[in-house]
Amino acid sequence: MGKIINYLKMPFTRLPDGKLYGKAHWLDAVLRIIGYLDLLLLPLYAYLSIEFIHYASMTRFTSFMTNRTPAVHFGILLIYLLFGLLLLICKKGWVAGLILSLASSIIALADFYKFALTGDYLYPWDVFAQTGNVGELASFLSTPLPYWAIVLIAGFIVAVAVLIVTKPELPVKAYIRLPVLAAAILLLVNSVNTPQKAQKVLNENSLYLEDMALQYSNYIANGFVGAFTVNILSTQVTPPDNYGKEMIASLLEGYEYTPETEDFSKPDVILILSESFWDVRMLPGVEFSENPLANYDEIIERENTVSGRFFTTGFGGGTVRPEFEVLTGLTTDRLPAGSVPWQYITEQSESYVSLYKSLGYKTVAMHPYTSSFYLRKEAYPLIGFDELKFEDTFYNHPDIPVKIDGKQITDETFAEHIIHYLDNADQPVFLFGISMENHQPYTNKYDTHTVTVSSDTIDAGVLADVENYTQGVLHADKALRALVDYIDSRERDTVLVWFGDHLPTLGANYAAYAQSGMIDLSAMSIEMKEALQSTPYIIYSNFEYREGAMVSAGKGQDLASYNLMNALSTLIGSPRTPLMHFLEDFYDTFPYYNVRLFTGLFPAEIWSFVDSHAALTYDRTVGNKYSAK
Question: Could you give the dihedral angle defined by the CA atoms of residues 240, 245, 250 and 251, in that order, rounded to the nearest 10 degrees?
Fold first, then answer.
């Protein structure tokens, strides 16, 4: 056996003069050619693999490669440029090839899984913002990988193995490589370091900064590499046309600050973002062993309850975007999609929170999860929160034991902490809470179920996810009832605002929604889009409302996320800022405008409000804050 191994090694064994053993000198040249060809072709293979996995369809992939030649050439050139920089750093071809292969595989698979489970593609902020977004993706890996993706990943393994055997490298000394590397990076950065330069580079390749406004069309039209690059280069957030002090002043002209009304009682305000709270009974043909929303049904029938649809740009994830809109009244429509809007809040900023703080309220944020997620710990104090209570508060509380179910702190524990805090407050409280129990993934989430579901059309695996999600809805419904009962027991005026941030992910590619017949992916109507982008909300109090300018007691009161707290203000008589009056007029034009509902059915006059709202958001995030002075 040893002789056989030695014989097989002989063609690859070098003599003292560096040449190969015996008459196999030709093999040296062949291996070198193979190695350098591998090195030359690997970036092209990486680009094609990324795009094929991105489109997940030969038809769509071929259409992109055929019809978007400038974007394709740009993407290929970019991958080669990055690979060249890697070679300048590493010198050894197998090291650079391994890094490129790993990066390409990880990014392509992350994009595949994220889209399959949330309907959103992978954004630069998922990778670079340090917000925990990519960490969420690790829990989605129960979705099987298609065979063609496995084959493409295997191709990377083979390519790297060949590089390891043939050992091609860049035959340039470090004292030459490193200066060339520095010069190349400087030239690259300098070519796109202003919005104008970035726009020129993109436009020359049939790509446009404006593409980031609608990310689905961005990633379909430009491919993953092109769209990802557009998003990276749009991080500076392009200012609106004619941006300046006079322009912003004109948007709020005629809108004045109005103080609280005489009957404003400074009620405690409980604002609850209930994770993925949605009426699961909207899935056609699905039957439940018990009503998972019995308390919700009873509460919305009460005389002092306002309820309806809360329109959100999120689906399956991205809680931070509706959260940002609810707390600030601003819009995320023209912030880079997938970005974390709190990253643009870097100084004290006006918000609904700061408004209540100015009235003498104690402002507190409560979330039974890590404080580092979505940059909340950094941004919350800047919009007016006095106290932040994250998972460490829950685990270290001396009087309330933590209960875990569905792999998260329960909604029951969450409600107990809210009640405990209000019982011990010595001044009016504005409390914003984000629950965590019903967070995805739903596969194998609960060990036991008190509610079971059945369906003749939904696949068994997807139906299991629906059942786990429904168990979480049942628990959220009980937490809602606990808070409402607590409010009813109080002598102090208290109002609860409860809403879901987005619909849940129930199987890959909208599986539960499509299989049940709730939506038709081949012919999405406006009603189907509205169903996917709206969740229930409730406003409930233990005192009588004023005559609301936007909503009134009863069902069917539809609202956009940025107007939820504005609508509350008209019911309880709290002060209102110029921005809030502007948003009321926006509401009067179209009560629930949402960019994901983009349709010609919107009235023409709405576009002035859309542009103005985006301009005011730019001003208060990355602009000069003219509207807040």
Answer: 50
Tokens 């987005």 identify what position? 502
Q: For residue 600, what pLDDT band results from cuts at 50, 70 and 90?
A: low
As given in the structure block, the two tokens for residue 478 are 């009980």
Q: How far apart are CA 162 and CA 160, in angstroms?
A: 5
pLDDT digits 0-9 by tens, 509-555: 788 999 999 999 889 898 999 999 999 999 999 999 998 889 999 99
CA nearest to 269, candidates 536, 477, 567: 567
Quote the radius of gyration of the chain (alpha carbons, Å).
Answer: 28
- Strands 404-405 vs 408-409: parallel, antiparallel or unpaired: antiparallel
DSSP letter at 15 equals P
Buried b / exposed e over 290-310, threshold 16 CB at 10 Å, is eebbebbeebbeeeebbbbbb
Q: Are 45 and 159 in contact (CB under 8 A)?
A: yes
The pTM for the full model equals 0.75
**Domain 266-628 superfamily per CATH:** Alkaline Phosphatase, subunit A (3.40.720.10)
Q: Where are the domains of the chain?
A: 2-233, 266-628
Q: How far apart are CA 323 and CA 330, in angstroms?
A: 10
